[in-house]
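Please, structure for the following, as tokens.
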Amino acid sequence: MKQERRYGRNGLPVVSFFFSSTGSVGRRTKTAFVTTIAYQVAQHRQELKDAITAAIEADTIVFKKNLHVQMETLVLAPLRKVAGASNGSPRGVIVVDGLDECGVEETHDHTTAGLIRPKPTRTKEQDQLEILQVLQQASSDPIFPFRIIIASRPERVFRLFFDLEGQPAPIAQKIDLHEDYDAEADITLFLEAHFDRLRRLHQLPPSWPPPDAVKILVRRASGQFIYAATVVRFLEEGHREPPKALLEAILAMKAMAISNPFEHLDVLYSRILNSSPDPLLSVRWILLIRVLNSVPVHTLRLLTETTVTTSDSYASHVHLLLQTDPESNEAEHLLGNLHSLIKIPPPSDRATTRYGFYHQSLFDFLEVPGRCGKLHIQHEKALGFLWDRFHQLCASEFCVAVTFVPISDVMILKEGATPVVQTQQASSCCRRPFLCVSEISGWASHTPRSFLHQLALIRGCRRCPL
């Protein structure tokens, strides 16, 4: 988890946490929120570090407790302990960015039968509200020396929490970036700097980009930095065409005559995705990579009775699951033109690195048929493709007899039913050790309950040569 710790211009501590729906579990859920804040606070004063260390030693299971207890134990109590010091508590700022991308924490119950049954989970809105309440709890404590800045989309849970009319006294000052901040100057500066770099890198004439090109792009961005950033990545990652031709193509794009604040971003996303040799299959890959990246990390049995913690969504594993021919270069064929949207690991890193995405707005675009048009794929159909590929791989890679629940049978199961997927032990081993620890129940947790309630852990042979 990559959290930045910076210092203000006057030496004041700045503590930060950045939520990302496409990041690791620690960045897309609340699990590491308070502990990350406590860690960064501890770096600013030795007395605080000692106090926080002592708190952990006194309560070793504090990391398993709720956020309110963690905030009191790891942050507020240590601050009180050092408050009597001559130099007092360090005043500073806590920045929480992307809180709207905090998803629900998914937990599973491993039963004695070896199946994994999802525990009843809260909604992501409840977890987001808990974080807001924990921060309010901290800020209302006189010992708490930090100002708090929260950056988020104005989703309903945030609007209700910060509704000043319902509060006896204002708890926060609201700044609407669409109304209170003019981003055009910053977007202009951003584009001009990158165009200057591209001009020097590709030895383009001083007249490039053409007159008014920056103004057109700034107007189309409508205050959305993601549009400008995507344009720049598209120009920089265009391996098959020079920046001059790519910029001309972008400037020639026409938005649809509909009321849509993201119309120019939608046109740009459509243009990039349609540059793939098979746009629909590429979109299916994008949706499924996101699903695989969000599979919770579980403790799985590998080789022997020893338990290990593993994550199976490295790029090489994604290729194994999604490519129709494991030995082909289908991933590069489909995604090679999409570097401006997807963080694609180089071949040398695919066994240890996951795919990533630059911005949540890509999935906002793909989830609305009215925005992405013919590129829209129903979530259930994408997951059906994943299930079919896993079925084919198990049939081809395991030297065992495998009994599967037909997808048609799963779809008609009543709420709460548990379809069982079994493998029969065989004398020889599977040829793909990765498949021995593949877990379908995690993927199923992202489907509507009426489609797939739960799938059991699919096991290969118990002993595989690595």
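Confidence is low (pLDDT under 50) at residues 1-10, 108-117, 297-311, 398-466. The CA atoms of residues 48 and 259 lie 53 Å apart.
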